[in-house]
Amino acid sequence: MRISTFFYTLKQGIINIFRNKWFSLASVATISACLFLFGLFYAVITNFQSIVKSAEEGVSVTIFFQPGTTEEQIMDIGSKIEARDEVSKIEYTSPEQAWEYYKENWIPEEFSDGFPDNPLENSASYAIYMKDISQQTALVDYLNSIPEIRTVNQSELAASTLTGVNALVAYVSAGIILILLLVSVFLISNTVTIGISVRKEEISIMKYIGATDFFVRAPFVIEGILIGVFGSALPLGTIYVLYNKVVEYIGTKFSVLSGLLNFLPVNTVFSTLAPVVVAIGVGIGFLGSFITVRKHLRV
């Protein structure tokens, strides 16, 4: 494309927006509303997933070893477990550490002298934490296959609940995003259709004097893309301001929940949200205008 053609196409796309300014404003407003809801939904879901992830990281599988298992065997088994893909970290508790913990937390000091040196001498254990709680079953099956392991303690309820929550969030997110995208594409399509009908005579003349299909289509595609850009910039600015204010308000008014509700920093959320919203806005504008032009121009 020549530079002159590019600037002509850009100019015509901008002129189309102002020529159909009410429809353009309606499209920008609708895309902004859709992307604003998408952005809010994304911010809530991202924080919710972060909370669920923190809960997952606190769920562990604990293993105890058969009597007579040597320290060397225990360390070797620990190394093999830690090397597995689904394991994020393991924590070893020796019999001595276990006994000290019980003495400090459960046995009054005046009674501790009546016990043997270490009644928990066969209580060496590993607490195994996973990257993804849904992989707990596979990990437990592996652990049960190791002869030196006596007992495997797991939380099936926590695993099934957290896995179910993650699946539900994924399905709901996909459904809402699809609905918002379809509504936005529909409105862009209507705006471009109006633009085509207004310029129908001009387009016919352009075709008669030899204008290419690309030359005729390009201004409408540019119009759709610009509407998408404007429609994505407005909600991003609004969400950025609102997010900080809401997080600050909740932190001030509901400080008792600060240990449970650890909100992500706004920059962490926007590092993904901003490019995604802009890409969706531009994509909606491009697809809505391109599909409509192909359907109605028949060039």
Description:
The mean pLDDT is 76. The chain is an alpha+beta fold and 299 residues long. The chain has helices at residues 3-19, 21-57, 71-82, 95-105, 136-144, 156-198, 200-208, 213-253, 266-297, and strands spanning 60-65, 87-93, 125-130, 149-153. 71% of the residues lie in helices and 8% in strands. It folds into 2 domains: 3-55 and 161-297, no CATH class; 60-154, Alpha-Beta Plaits, CATH 3.30.70. The chain has a 4-stranded antiparallel beta sheet with strand order 2-3-1-4.
Keywords:
single chain, 299 residues, alpha+beta, Alpha-Beta Plaits, 2 domains, 4-stranded antiparallel beta sheet, 9 helices, 4 strands, 71% helix, 8% strand, elongated
Task: Set out the fold topology.
Blueprint: H1 3-19, H2 21-57, E1 60-65, H3 71-82, E2 87-93, H4 95-105, E3 125-130, H5 136-144, E4 149-153, H6 156-198, H7 200-208, H8 213-253, H9 266-297
Antiparallel strand pairs: 1-3, 1-4, 2-3
Subcellular location: Cell membrane
Protein name: Cell division protein FtsX
Transmembrane segments: 21-45, 168-193, 214-243, 263-293
Strand content: 5-15%
Order of helices and strands: HHEHEHEHEHHHH
Low-confidence stretches: none
* Total helical segments: 9
Number of domains: 2
Q: Give the helix proportion (percent range).
A: over 70%
Radius of gyration from the alpha-carbon trace, in angstroms: 31 Å
**Average pLDDT level:** 76
In which order are the strands of the major sheet placed? 2-3-1-4
The total of beta strands comes to 4
Based on Cα principal axes, name the global outline: elongated
The major sheet is characterized as: 4 strands, antiparallel
Taking the alpha carbons of the first and last residues, their distance comes to 19 Å
Please state the structural category: alpha+beta
Family: Belongs to the ABC-4 integral membrane protein family. FtsX subfamily.
Function: Part of the ABC transporter FtsEX involved in asymmetric cellular division facilitating the initiation of sporulation.
InterPro entries: ABC3_permease_C, FtsX, FtsX_ECD, FtsX_firmicutes-type
Keywords: Cell cycle, Cell division, Cell membrane, Membrane, Transmembrane, Transmembrane helix
